[in-house]
Specification:
213 residues; alpha/beta; Rossmann fold; 36% helix; 17% strand
Length: 213
Amino acid sequence: MEFLSDDLHNYIAGRTTEAPSYLDELERETWVKVLMPRMLSGHVQGQILKMFSSMMQPTFILEVGTYTGYASHFLVEGLKPDGEFHAVEINEELETIIKKYWAKHEKANQMHLHIGPATEILESLQRPWDLVFLDADKINLIHYYEQLLPQLRTGGIMLIDNILWSGKVVGGPHSNDKDTKAIQALNDHVTKDDRVEQVILSVRDGIMMVRKL
Ligand SMILES: C[S@@+](CC[C@H](N)C(=O)[O-])C[C@H]1O[C@@H](n2cnc3c(N)ncnc32)[C@H](O)[C@@H]1O
């Protein structure tokens, strides 16, 4: 389900700062060569991630679920010169395309890719995260949230993608699947969590913005 008409979507996209042209190339290559290209964030959501990163000037940034690495280019924009960006991706076949385009970013030497299941990698990858973008499998959402919240610094931001799940979170005939239930559980879990404050941004498929108190 699309939340916006095509006209409104095009209006917004046409009035949002464009992505660098090499990222249009990455988008095209993703659509031609990789399964499920709709997973790529797109330049409007990318620009939002860039705004957060630029405002926060983080030292430690984490992306869980990197796909072809499109969102990484925006997340890393505000990274401090001595900072680290880490991305976790389970699909080893994506490594070549991720690295091919990361190499074009001026902060490439601060960008670290970890291939493998996030539950395992996050065990060994402990940092005082300033900014986390959670965008992997939905079944483990609460697990990732609980694993990462203690590491998030006070005032740090966790952005959790797809939390409206094409509108299925509010019910309907197609909302009985495991992913929908996992996302509903996560949204309710965060809502009851007095360690954080949060707001749902109705951007694209919904982003839960969580700030650690
Ligand atoms: C929605 S895509 C990420 C899109 C990317 N963040 C972007 O905005 O362009 C989700 C990614 O999570 C990865 N993924 C799924 N389960 C995972 C797991 N258990 N550990 C690590 N990555 C996982 C998938 O392979 C997929 O590439």
